[in-house]
Design brief:
With 360 residues, the protein is of the alpha+beta class. The chain contains 13 helices and 15 strands. 37% of the residues lie in helices and 19% in strands.
Amino acid sequence: MTHHLSRDEARRIAVRAQLLDAQRPGDVVEVAEQLGWIKIDPTAAITTSEHAILWARIGWGYEPGQLQKAVEVDRQLFEFDGTLRPMSVLGPLLTVSRHRRLYADTGTWLAANERFGRDVISRLRAEGPMPASAIPDTSQVQRSSESGWYGANQVPRMLEVLSRLGEVAVVGRQGRLRVWDVVERAYPDGVPDLPLDEAERLLAERRLQGLGIAKKSAMSPVGTAGEPVTIEGLPGTYRVDSEALAALDEDEGGRVAILNPYDVSLYDRRRLRDLFGFEYKVEQFVPKAQRVYGYFAHPVLVGDRFMGLLDAEHDRKREVLRVNALHELEQFEPEELEMVHAEIRDLGGWLGVPVVGLGD
């Protein structure tokens, strides 16, 4: 059976699935379990992505130390490929990782550095967790980085490739530096080794759970999870999470949310455009003279509409949250503007600094 939804209903499902409705979640693990993953990124115009993503959901109840505790002490979350994920997806994720096919040039580099890979794993196994800087580079073949993400040292690249293959894992951080170990110590005993098709199905279901509603694509790989649905005014068939669809009438309304540019809800740009009518581009790598909204403008969600972009920065030297501009994509009603200003002030309060430049 194919369901039929209005675009308003589809947006409400998406907002609720992303924990951006009026009912805030209670803790870090609840957020990770629902969203499926939390992006890690060091860009901190206001604060780093992982903390911004959690604050946008939990609000004042979130303290950054809660995240480190969930990862390094309670081991309820784990780091994988630049994201934090709940332990409940570890089994299917490791299964898929062990069946991963590398890009041709990466596979060639790995094969040429087989001894180097063994050296890295042996050192971790013998000496325990350590950052990449503590591991010697014994590579046989070097690979240059045209993108600039990697230097001449091949160890960070080898660790990342081995982690995607399920051989090593990040077990903590020293500041922003990742600490690595072999998987047999990094993860708890008894992680199930699943058939590949079952693992892929489970991951697709979790992706759809976090999105609520999506069309299968490279940016939203939901497969055939959930149920088929058409959306008024949009071509093609989407997939909708069954529980989200059943709970549609329980909608408790929306709120204001200020979203980090690397928030999972913004990842699929086509979905943003189709469901929300929101064309979004991060201008971080755009030349300054060509920027329209600012270096790292944060989308402002009001209810189920992206109504603005906040260009702001946490000035740590002067200890203020400086608002450079609040761009209105749609004109705010007075009550909406008041709520947006209140959310910005709350963000400053959570950071422990006053807000300047708000203009009210």
